[in-house]
Amino acid sequence: MMTTALVAIDSTILATAVPTIVAELGGFTIFPWLFTVYLLTQAVTVPIYSKLADTMGRRPVVLVGVGLFFLGSVLSGAAWSMPTLIAFRAIQGLGAGAVQPMAMTIAGDIYTVAERARVQGYLASVWGISAVVGPTLGGVFSQFTSWRWIFFVNVPVCLAAAYLLRRHLTESVEHRRHRIDWTGAALLTVGLTLVVLALLQGGQAWAWVSAPTLGSFGVGAVLLAAFVVVERRAAEPVLPLWVLGRRLLGTAALISVGVGVILLGLTTYVPTFLETLVHASPLVSGLTLATLTMGWPLAASQAGRLYLRLGFRATVVTGASVVVVAAALLALASRHPAVLTVALTCFVMGLGLGLVATPALIAAQSSVDWGQRGVVTGANMFARSMGSALGVAALGALVNGLMAGRDATADPARFHTAATAAFTGVAVAAALMLLVALAMPRTPVPD
């Protein structure tokens, strides 16, 4: 729960301070990289950490993650420009790549499927508390002190998490020789980085039809194709293709991609949308966004009862349907922005996501044994992180294209159009997620 708090607080505390950070450091057109580089480094390291966790144990991996998150937080708080802040956020992402999936994997190790229904309530409470604490602290720091404390506040949480893990987490691990697929990891990292770079810089630093943009897309695609070839032949692939080949695991991963797109799409643009168009304070915009992560744990805490009674697929389809309706309402409501309307739609969307993310992950975990659970959980978290990274990049490209390099505060009318387009993109992602949920197999819930 303490390690989960690191990621949970970070998911909401930064977004509220983006306008303040941009005002001090500049770089409005590249600020989406604050989220993208974090998610990208998190995503590409998740499979590596997950493989190590299945061979070395969970505790050493999660402790390394906490240490890297600590280092990235201290450096981010001392950043002197937008590029340096983006670089230090990458280090935070390296830590988060171990922290988030290991917390979920450890919960899967300790508790049965039936017990996880109750435990998810405990873990969800962390997100609920963070949903209030994160935006509140982000708003208070950026409005009354300094945005730098948004990162420094992670220091005591990291220290507490490391202490509790070393003191209380014990595990019996059968150590064996292992080979890390560094070639596959490098191909995945560079390939995804080039694709995200093309999405964010296309139409801004480079024209869409230009050598840098087309070259980045092309080389990125070739490297990702090479990654697939390498994974087929690797003795211990960093991302085993069987994880995506099974229907249950594949649909669960695609659902996580949709969750990532929706979650970070809203986290990135809702606060800036409210602060620019209705002149909401950072504190108010943060609390408005917090309704999303308040609805999520409320639903997640009850998801166990639903999937034990109705099954995994029915629960996920129900949640995805709620998300589609709420996303469509948010896209429509953005034409006439109001804090209360945005808060209500985000809350309902959080309820839907809580019924989607948790049952889909537990369904995937319950289909494998201990030795594969780390990889399966990691693949699911990897999919969510990649959905977040690519989603933010794609939405950032859309918004930047419509803004044509203009500052949102200087041209609010154009930003209004751009934000509405971004929320419409979120609604499209929600609809695609529902279609994938309908394709999820009817899997019996284990005793």
Structure characterization notes:
This protein has 447 residues and is an all-alpha fold. The chain has two domains: 2-169 and 238-438, Up-down Bundle (Growth Hormone, Chain: A); 181-237. Helix content is 81%, strand content 0%. The chain contains 17 helices and no strands. The chain has helices spanning 2-13, 18-25, 33-56, 58-77, 82-110, 113-144, 149-152, 154-168, 182-201, 211-233, 242-245, 247-277, 282-310, 312-333, 339-366, 370-403, 412-438. Helix 5 (82-110) packs antiparallel against helix 16 and helix 12 runs antiparallel to helix 15. The longest helix has 34 residues, at 370-403. The chain is globular, with a radius of gyration of 20 Å. The two termini are 25 Å apart. The mean pLDDT is 81.
